[in-house]
Amino acid sequence: MSLSMDGLASYYMNSASNASNASSIEKKVGNKDLSNASDDELMDVCKQFEAYFVEQMFKAMEATVPESESSDAGMTTMKDYYKEQIIQQYASDATQGDGFGLAQTLYEQMKRNYNV
Question: How far is CA 109 from CA 3, 23, 70, in A?
Fold first, then answer.
């Protein structure tokens, strides 16, 4: 079995309710064949996935906050753009260092299951 992000992205695409989120992970992590990846490259991909996962979690939490009724269309577009940037930065910052441990767990499982 080839170890690549294709399988992860296709699994996410099939199980997610929003297919555009699946294409987003492919853009962030890439379509890399990791069967010959070094330990550092594999861990980097795992950290990128953890950051993406945390970003989606932050977006889901943010969606629970009611929006104000008065909004200008131009301001809404600008606000959405900066909100997206801030969420991505928060997710990246939250996963620096040891993060939540998801990247380390994923890394260890990939090493064990695929003998990379």
Answer: 12, 24, 48
